[in-house]
Amino acid sequence: MPIDAAKAVAAEPRTAEISWGHKDVQLYHLGLGAGAPATDPAELRYTLESRLHVLPSFATVAGAGAGAGVVGGLTSPGIDVDLAAVLHGGQTVRVHRPIPAEGRAVQTSKVAAVYDKGKAAVLVLRTEAADDEGPLWTNDAEIFVRGEGGFGGERGPSGLHADLAAVPNHTVERPVRENQALLYRLSGDRNPLHADPEFARKAGFDRPILHGLCTYGMTLKAVADTLLGGEVARIRSYRTRFAGVVFPGETLRIRMWTGDGRVRVAVTAVERDEAPVLADTLVEHS
Predict the structure, then answer these.
(1) How far does Cα 185 stand from its chain's mean position?
(2) Which of 69, 103, 203, 285 could form a disulfide with 127 if both were Cys (CB 3.0 to 4.6 A apart)?
(3) Long-range Cβ contacts of 165-170 (<8 Å, 24+ apart)
(4) Which residue, among 171, 178, 253, 173, has the nearest Cα to 210 in the 3D structure?
(5) Bridge partners of residue 44, in order along the sequence
(6) Average of pLDDT values for 164-169?
(7) Is 0.90 surpassed by the pTM of this model?
(8) For 83-98, how does the pLDDT look when each residue is reduced to its tens digit (9 = 90+)?
(9) pLDDT the model gives residue 21
(10) Active site residues per annotation
(11) Cα separations (Å) of 21 from 62, 102, 104, 121?
(12) Cα separation of 145 and 155, whole Å?
């Protein structure tokens, strides 16, 4: 059934109360590979409750998490799609102030836009969170739906297209542990694609793959540690396009191009001949 873009965007937003504590933040950070070496003061800011700073990408799992927002968005009025045709195409997080290590908020979700890419449609599913002190964050999940384009809608914004021929200012590598997907999924995304070998084979992979949002968080942590001295409160926004999969046990190569409060980033899988993982990636900071 074709997507009714006007009906989807005009639908009433959904609201839910969410909460989180320092254990949720610590588990999320550990799922990104934080805490190695365990006694490194730079790592303790991610793992020790008395020093805890919260990566802005935590907004994708806080409370119900981005996964629940995506599922809810795909059942909105005007949207009737085959879930087998759905891919998580991109993610943007904008933080309005530092995320507290413990908190409660009201999260509002809606379809913010529907774009026509010809052979596919892109849904922008937006979740906004606010507490008693005001807005906390805005999440935009870009959902690619194959076979649902061609309805004559706007094409939407184009990507950033960082020049990979230019020499990056910084390049770092981050290993993905063999059990990392098993740990990361405890933060909310229990999709068996990331844990069950049989399910992964049915989906076309020879083994379970890492969550795209885990790679997303790992990359932001690498940028914060490399360029911002771990001062995560300086991060204002972070966007990416998911360009390929990562398998547990692989190594991420993260290239960074800096300038004027903006860091452009490209991420590849080292062991698969620099296969693209994250593209059109931008971190904005103070």
Answers:
(1) 13
(2) 69
(3) 166/257, 168/255, 168/256, 168/257, 168/266, 169/256, 169/257, 169/258, 170/226, 170/227, 170/255, 170/256, 170/258
(4) 178
(5) none
(6) 84
(7) yes
(8) 677 889 999 999 999 9
(9) 96
(10) 189, 194
(11) 9, 4, 9, 37
(12) 14
Residues 6+ apart with CB under 8 A from 102: 20, 21, 22
The span from the CA of 68 to the CA of 279, in Å, is 24
- 186-226 pLDDT, tens per residue? 999 988 999 999 999 998 999 999 999 999 999 999 999 99
Taking alpha carbons only, the member of 187, 186, 20 closest to residue 100 is: 20
User: Is residue 67 over pLDDT 80?
Assistant: no
**For 5-146, CATH number?**
3.10.129.10
Cβ burial, residue 37 (10 Å; 0-12/13-18/19+): exposed
Q: Report the CATH number of the 170-285 domain.
A: 3.10.129.10
Query: Given the structure tokens 């971190």, which residue do they identify?
Result: 283
pLDDT of res. 4: 86
Measured CA to CA, the distance from residue 277 to residue 252 in angstroms comes to 8
Q: What is the pLDDT of residue 163?
A: 61
Mean pLDDT of the chain: 92
Residue 208 and residue 195 in contact, taking contact as beta carbons nearer than 8 Å: yes
Domain ranges in the chain are 5-146, 170-285
d(CA 157, CA 171): 28
Three-state SS at 53: coil
